Amino acid sequence: MEFLKIKEEMHYLQRKYRIIQELEKIVTNEGYVLIEPAIFEEYETFIKINKRIQKESMVKVINSDNSILILRPDATTSIIEQVIPKWEEGLKLKLFYNTKVFRHTSKGIKEYHQFGIENLGESCDYDVVELVFKILKQFNENYLVEIGNSKFINDLFKLLNLDEANEQVLKSYIYYKNQFEINRFIERNKPNHHKILSSLLSLQGCLTDIKKKLDDFTLTDEMEAAIDELNNLQFDNAKFDLSMISQYDYYDGIIFKGYYPNTPIPIISGGRYDGLTKRYGHRIKAVGFSIDSDALIREVFSK
Amino acid sequence: MRKDYLTLALAKGRLGKSLMKEIEENGKLQSIDLDSRKLIFFDDKNKIRYMVVKPIDVITYVEKGVADLGVVGRDNLLEAQGDLYELLDLGFGKCKFSIAGVKGQKLYQKDSILKIATKYPNVAMKYFQSKQQKIDIIKLNGSVELAPLVGLADVIVDIVETGHTIKANGLEILEDMFDISAKLIANRVSYRFKQSEINKLCDLLEGRNEDD
User: How far does the CA of residue B63 sit from the closest CA of chain A (Å)?
Assistant: First the structure.
C-alpha cells in the first residue's frame, strides 16, 4: 500500500488554502475584518462564565506564576474578552477569524480549525443568517439550516419552575429528542404548563406549521417575541425547530446549525449571545457563527 | 445505488431477533434472515437497508452517519452516549441493569473499596460515584458471572433478563439499577435531511396506521 506523497500533500494544502480564501472573500465583501483571538485563557474565569462546558475537555497549561491557563476551546469567548472592556457606545464591529481551537478527546488533544464571524453592536439576525446560507450554497447546493430560538425554551423553563438538577435532566432529554423520557418526566413531576412541554418536540418543520400547532397553547409575551424573531428568516432550505438546545448556554436568541447530507456533523453553528457580553462587562448586541473548516474541506474534497 | 434508502444499523443477537419478531407480527415491514452470514439486507418495498453489526458498534455507525438509524439497547446508550437522537422506546428487549454478588455475602463491609467486574465501566463508575462508594473496576468482555466466584471481584454490574445465569452460578441480585429496553436512535444530520421518511418508519414501528 502506498500513502500520500509529499507532492500530493502540497497539492492538498493548496486546495485547502483556496477554500479558506473563498471564505475570506465572502466575509470581507460583507465588510468583516480579521481579528486574532488570544490563544490562552484563564481557567477559573472561563469555567465561571461557561458553566456547562465539560471541564475535562479543556487543555490546561501551567503559567510561570503557577496559575492555570487553558488553550482556547472556542474563539468567541476570546474575542469577546478582548473587545468588550474597550467597548464604546454606538460602536458597530464586524469581525472574522481563521484559527484553531483545542480540546481533549478520548484520543488525546485535538486541534480543530475554525473559521467564523462575530457581528457586534447591531441587531442583524437576518444579515448573519443570510450569510450562513450564502456560504453553505457556495460549496454544495444540497444543504439545510436548522433554526431555533433559545428564548422560547428558556421562557418555557421559567414557567416550569424546576430545580437546577431536574432542569438539567429535562434539558438533556430535549437535546436527545427523547419523547419517551419527557413523558415519563411529566408523569413523575407533574410540572405546571406541561402541555407545551409534551408537544415541544413536534414544534419543528416550516414556521407556518409550527404556528398552527401553537394555536392550541397560551404563550407568554417572550415566547411570542421569540417566534416573531424567526419570521423574517424563512429562507428556502430553512427548517425551524423550537426544541433546539445548544451545548453552550450563552446563546439567548436565535440559534442555528448548517448541514450537508454527507457530513455527519454540523458545518456551521452559531446564534445570538448578548448574554455572554454582559458577563464581560457590557451587554451589547452580538451574533455570530463558526465554521468547522476541517469538515467543510473534507466535504469539498469528497466531491 | 439505492440512494434514497434509509439505512438502519441493527444489533446482532438478542435485540436483532426481537426486532425481526416484532416486524413479522407487525406485517408492514419486510423481515430479514439474521441467521445468514450476510451483513447487509434490503427491504425494497419500504426502502430500508439493514446493516447487521455488534450491539456496541450500533452507536458508532449512527454517530458517524453511515447509518441513519439504529436499534440498540439502552444499556449501550448508557455506556457510550453518542451525540445523536433517541427517537423511540421500542418496548421490547426489556431487562435490568443490576448489581449481583455471591449469595449471602455481606460485601460492602469487607473493604472500603468495592471491586466490580463489568462490561460497562462507565455505567458502573457513574452509578457508584452518585452513591459515594469507592470502587475499583475490572473491565471484562464476557462471562462476567465468573468474577465473584473466583475472587476476581466482589460484585458484578451487568444486564439481567431472566436471572437464570445469575442463579445457575450461585449469585443473587443485590440491587437493581436501571430499566433497559430497545431504543431507536438517529443521526442528527440524517434526521434533518430524511425527516419525513424517518417519521414514517417511526409510525410503522410504533404500529400506528398511516391513515390515523
Answer: 7
Tens of pLDDT, residue by residue over A6-21, are 998 999 899 999 999 9
- Which residues in chain A touch residue B188, judged by CB atoms under 8 angstroms apart? 264
Q: Distance (Å) from the C-alpha of residue A215 to the closest C-alpha of chain B? A: 22
The SS3 of residue A60 is strand
Per-residue pLDDT tens over the stretch A164-198: 899 989 999 999 999 999 999 999 988 887 889 99
Q: Chain B residues contacting A, CB < 8 Å?
A: 63-65, 84-89, 187-193, 195
Cβ-Cβ contacts under 8 Å, B191 against chain A: 177
User: What is the total count of domains within chain A?
Assistant: 2
Give A23 or A249, the one with higher predicted confidence.
Answer: A23
Residue B118 pLDDT greater than 90, yes or no: yes
**Cβ <8 Å between A264 and B84:** no
Chain A nearest CA to B172, separation (Å): 30
CA distance B127 to B177: 8
Our CA-based measurement puts residue B148 at a distance from the nearest CA of chain A, in whole angstroms, of: 30
| Secondary structure, 3-state, chain B | CCCCCEEEEEECCHHHHHHHHHHHHHCCCCCCCCCCCCCEEEECCCCEEEEEECHHHHHHHHHCCCCCEEEEEHHHHHHCCCCCEEEEECCCCCEEEEEEEECCCCCCCCCCCEEEEECCHHHHHHHHHHCCCCEEEEECCCCCCHHHHCCCCCEEEEEECCCHHHHHCCEEEEEEEEEECEEEEECHHHHHHCHHHHHHHHHHHCCCCCCC
Res B153: pLDDT: 93
Q: Kindly determine whether residue A263 and residue B192, on different chains, have CB atoms separated by under 8 Å.
A: no
Is A114 a member of any domain? yes
Task: State the Cα–Cα distance between residues B12 and B52, nearest whole angstrom.
Answer: 6
Cell of A121: 453592536
Mean pLDDT of chain A: 92
Contact B193/A265, CB-based, under 8 Å?
no
Of B63, B65, B193, nearest to A144 by CB-CB distance is B193
The enclosing domain of A194 has a CATH number of 3.30.930.10
Looking at this predicted complex, what is its ipTM? 0.89
The residue segments making up the domain with residue A40 are 1-141+281-303
The predicted-structure confidence for B124-166, as pLDDT tens digits, reads as follows 999 999 988 889 999 999 899 999 999 999 999 999 988 898 9
- pTM (2 decimals)? 0.90
CB spacing of A177 vs B87 below 8 angstroms: yes
Domain-embedded: residue A17: yes
